[in-house]
Design goal:
Blueprint (H helix, E strand, L loop, with lengths): L1 H4 L4 H18 L9 H18 L3 H6 L1 H29 L9 H12 L3 H11 L3 H13 L1 H14 L7 H33 L9 H18 L4 H19 L2 H32 L6 H26 L9 H9 L5 H8 L9 H30 L11 H21 L4 H20 L9 H19 L12 H6 L16 H17 L18 H19 L15 H10 L15 E4 L10 E3 L14 H6 L2 E4 L49
Parallel strand pairs: 1-3
Antiparallel strand pairs: 1-2
Helix pairs in contact: 2-13, 3-12, 3-13, 5-6, 5-8, 5-9, 5-14, 6-9, 6-16, 7-8, 9-10, 10-11, 10-12, 11-12, 11-13, 14-15, 14-17, 16-17
Protein name: Sodium/hydrogen exchanger
Family: Belongs to the monovalent cation:proton antiporter 1 (CPA1) transporter (TC 2.A.36) family.
Keywords: Antiport, Calmodulin-binding, Cell membrane, Coiled coil, Glycoprotein, Ion transport, Lipoprotein, Membrane, Palmitate, Phosphoprotein, Sodium, Sodium transport, Transmembrane, Transmembrane helix, Transport, Ubl conjugation
Length: about 700
């Protein structure tokens, strides 16, 4: 019935089916089965978590890991203690039926009911097709808050047996959170590496390849649960670590088997969980207390909203892409509870928790409210608020190239700025992976294959399979057998269509040049720091040269003579200095040039900013007599600079002799020097002044 399934989520319909089945079983006088915690945690939950971890969108997950951890750890702790404290106050004020419930029991109840459930989130969010950011934030929180839930649950359960809780017990409980979470991740990583290493040697027996993936993942979950570590985090870590190496080693058929078997297995588990929830609701023992149940529901919603608003205000101070009010509403509204809370409540012991039935009733009420009310209304609210939906687009080679280019670019920018951020550590990890890990865990030539080429092969294979499934290759006559098809010699292409094939060595060389140069250019650069900048030794010299040039210009504006351009082709200032420095004898002296303004060139240091100096302040034309035509045609004379004595001005020093050793060259006074000036095209003294 499409009209019903478009309004009501699948999880709600399955719970309704469970309620009907449970009522039917009870109606005929039989006792309905109850969802036992062992069955749930050992057989129904692992397939769903493995499917989520193995196909986790790793890029979005790692880019938002900080936000997810804050929501998962701080948010869950806030929910548990806020809810537990308020429920303790309600129990103290709620009358004789609730007075006997202590603080530890309420905190235990708060830790059970506070965690967002990954099964319920997956069931609802997959149907509304929310955008990747919101999906990974809510789903990532539901996966990673398992460690907090496990620690708080076992902590308060143990504290309930103690006569007195000391400060040392609280400190040990705080440290156990790190042991449980990091221990679970470590167990998952170890089994993921073992699975990847095993898949390296399965090329001759492809049938058992999928089995190793399931076997090692389940072993990781059981090993973590055995030591009271986080089994969910172990499964996620195992799936994330093994996937890139396993997929490089196994065949395409094994990959397809793993993909569809995991999807089917998780779908079956999800269906059974929600049906059993409905059946257990009918079959279980319930104790209804209006005050306790309504307070639990109300405070759950208040704690979630307050937690999301406060944490998002803090997170947005550090995020580049801010979480908008619409995003905050969806995150708060998407905090669904599910079967994990029910199973943890079912695990409680009657001896220490006599109020277990009331706890279970309140938990089932919260689960039904979040799954039915919030799950059914979140789709119209997403449409009403115009929240961005997920866009189904196929990845292309172009997108992959630009993604890798931007990763390299951002890593280089971080290195130049001296900031060791997300991209820097990601790049370090990628280098370590390529240099050491891939060689150990991937067999054959695939270990040396660049990421772009591997992605291209994957896309090519996928496109070929889609082409075959759609029948796009063309119809082959049924009379021709597959053996005869293989024996047909393919037609050789015409010579003009044959593309020049690169050898393997040449390909590797090209790849190596491109990849290493793109990545290793930045290694030669030092981190920028304003405190360690080296002073420019020429900076003071440039300033002195500019001041002297201004003085020279002011002097020349008083002159009435005209500057003439030499008849031969002018060289650039740099070439002229180089030519004089290399062969000063090539320029013969002119006669009667002792009264002309002289520019000296120091051949020893043609690149020095002080290589151009005015020797004669006053030309002959400044004495009141008009300049003769010969002098006008002669222009300026250049001489080799003599070493200046200490204490004299090396800029405005008149020439002392006119010996043949003083070499001269016609030159314009508008020498721009080592750096081009803004007025480079203007002469010192425009003609006509």
């Amino acid at each position: 019935i499409p009209s019903v399934s478009s309004i009501v989520p699948e999880s709600c319909l399955l719970i309704v089916v469970g309620l009907l089945v449970g009522g039917l079983i009870k109606g005929v006088g039989e006792k309905p089965p109850i969802l036992k915690s062992d069955i749930f945690f050992l057989f129904l939950l692992p397939p769903i978590i493995l499917d989520a971890g193995y196909f986790l969108p790793l890029r979005q997950f790692t880019e938002n890991l900080g936000t997810i951890l804050i929501f998962a750890v701080v948010g869950t702790l806030w929910n548990a203690f806020f809810l537990g404290g308020l429920m303790y106050a309600v129990c103290q004020l709620g009358g004789p039926g609730l007075n006997h419930i202590g603080l530890l029991a309420n905190l235990l109840f708060g830790s059970i009911i506070s965690a967002v459930d990954p099964v319920a989130v997956l069931a609802v969010f997959e149907e509304i097709h929310i955008n990747e950011l919101l999906h990974i934030l809510v789903f990532g929180e539901s996966l990673l808050n398992d460690a907090v839930t496990v620690v708080l649950y076992h902590l308060f359960e143990e504290f309930a047996n103690f006569e007195q809780v000391t400060i040392i017990d609280i400190i040990l409980g705080f440290l156990s959170f790190f042991v449980v979470s990091l221990g679970g991740v470590l167990v998952g990583v170890i089994y993921g590496v073992i699975a990847a290493f095993t898949s390296r040697f399965t090329s001759h027996i492809r049938v058992i390849e999928p089995l190793f993936v399931f076997l090692y993942s389940y072993m990781a979950y059981l090993s973590a649960e055995l030591f009271h570590l986080s089994g969910i985090m172990a499964l996620i870590a195992a799936g994330v670590v093994m996937r890139p190496y396993v997929e490089a080693n196994i065949s395409h058929k094994s990959h397809t088997t793993i993909k569809y078997f995991l999807k089917m297995w998780s779908s079956v588990s999800e269906t059974l969980i929600f049906i059993f929830l409905g059946v257990s609701t009918v079959a279980g023992h319930h104790y209804w207390n209006w005050t306790f149940v309504i307070s639990t529901l109300f405070f759950c919603l208040i704690a979630r909203v307050l937690g999301v608003l406060v944490l998002t205000w803090f997170i947005n101070k550090f995020r580049i892409v801010k979480l908008t009010p619409k995003d905050q509403f969806i995150i708060a509204y998407g905090g669904l509870r599910g079967a994990i809370a029910f199973s943890l409540g079912y695990l409680l012991d009657y001896e220490h928790f006599g109020m277990r039935d009331m706890f279970l009733t309140a938990i089932i009420t919260v689960i039904f409210f979040t799954v039915f009310v919030q799950g059914m209304t979140i789709r119209p609210l997403v449409d009403l608020l115009a929240v961005k939906k997920k866009q189904e687009t196929k990845r292309s080679i172009n997108e992959e190239i630009h993604t890798q280019f931007l990763d390299h670019l951002l890593t280089g920018i971080e290195d130049i700025c001296g900031h060791y951020g997300h991209h820097h550590w990601k790049d370090k990890l990628n280098r370590f992976n390529k240099k050491y890990v891939k060689k150990c865990l991937i067999a054959g030539e695939r270990s040396k294959e660049p990421q772009l080429i591997a992605f291209y092969h994957k896309m090519e294979m996928k496109q070929a399979i889609e082409l075959v499934e759609s029948g796009g290759i063309g119809k082959i006559p049924s009379a021709v057998s597959t053996v005869s098809i293989q024996n047909i010699n393919p037609k050789t292409l015409p010579l003009d269509r044959v593309l020049p094939a690169l050898s393997k060595d040449k390909e590797e060389e090209i790849r190596k040049i491109l990849r290493t140069n793109l990545q290793k250019t930045r290694q030669r650069l030092r981190s920028y720091n304003r405190h360690t900048l080296v002073a420019d030794p020429y900076e003071e010299a440039w300033n002195q040269m500019l001041l002297r040039r201004q003085k020279a210009r002011q002097l020349e504006q008083k002159m009435n003579n005209y500057l003439t351009v030499p008849a031969h082709r002018l060289d650039s200032p740099t070439m002229s200095r180089a030519r004089i420095g290399s062969d000063p004898l090539a320029y013969e002296p002119k006669e009667d040039s002792e009264n002309l303004p002289i520019i000296t060139i120091d051949p020893a240091s043609p690149q020095s900013p002080e290589s151009v100096d005015l020797m004669s302040e006053e030309p002959k034309g400044c004495s009141g007599l008009p300049p003769s035509p010969e002098e006008d045609e002669e222009g300026l004379v250049m001489r080799v600079k003599e070493p200046s004595s200490p204490g004299t001005d090396d800029v405005f020093t008149p020439g002392t002799s006119d010996s043949p050793s003083n070499q001269r060259m016609l030159r314009c006074l508008s020498d721009p020097g080592p750096r081009p000036e803004p007025e480079e095209g203007e002469p010192f003294i425009p003609k006509g002044q």
